[in-house]
């Protein structure tokens, strides 16, 4: 039951995320069928989105990296007050 619900939910989200025929006509070739609404107003929109994507990927990379291997080895670091490394 849980698996069927999850599958149905994912399919519903996929279908609702796809662009409708009216929106598809307004989009540039690159974004056809992906997004709703009017397309980008100028090439600056692509530049802004590209810069934001690079920033997000940079933050995600270092967040995961430091979460997996923080690199703190000092015995007086605060994490050792809660960790029991016997």
- Given the structure, what is the number of helices? 3
Shape: flat
Total strands: 0
Q: What is the straight-line distance between the termini?
A: 43 Å
Structural class computed from helices and strand pairing? mainly alpha
Q: Would you summarize the structure shown here?
A:
Helices cover 56% and strands 0% of the residues. It is mainly alpha-helical and 86 residues long.
Structural topology:
Layout: H1 2-17, H2 21-26, H3 43-68
Description:
With 86 residues, this protein is mainly alpha-helical. The protein has two domains: 1-39; 40-72. 56% of the residues lie in helices and 0% in strands. The chain is built from three helices and no strands. It has helices at residues 2-17, 21-26, 43-68. The protein is flat. 0% of the residues are buried. The mean pLDDT is 80.
Protein traits:
86 residues; mainly alpha; 2 domains; 3 helices; flat
């Amino acid at each position: 039951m849980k698996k069927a619900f999850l599958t149905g939910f994912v399919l519903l989200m996929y279908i609702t995320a796809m662009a409708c025929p009216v929106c598809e006509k307004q989009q540039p070739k690159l974004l056809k069928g992906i997004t709703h609404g009017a397309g980008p107003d100028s090439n600056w929109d692509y530049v802004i989105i590209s810069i934001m994507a690079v920033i997000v990927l940079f933050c995600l990379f270092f967040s995961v990296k430091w979460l997996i291997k923080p690199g703190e080895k000092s015995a007086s670091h605060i994490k050792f007050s809660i960790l029991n490394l016997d």
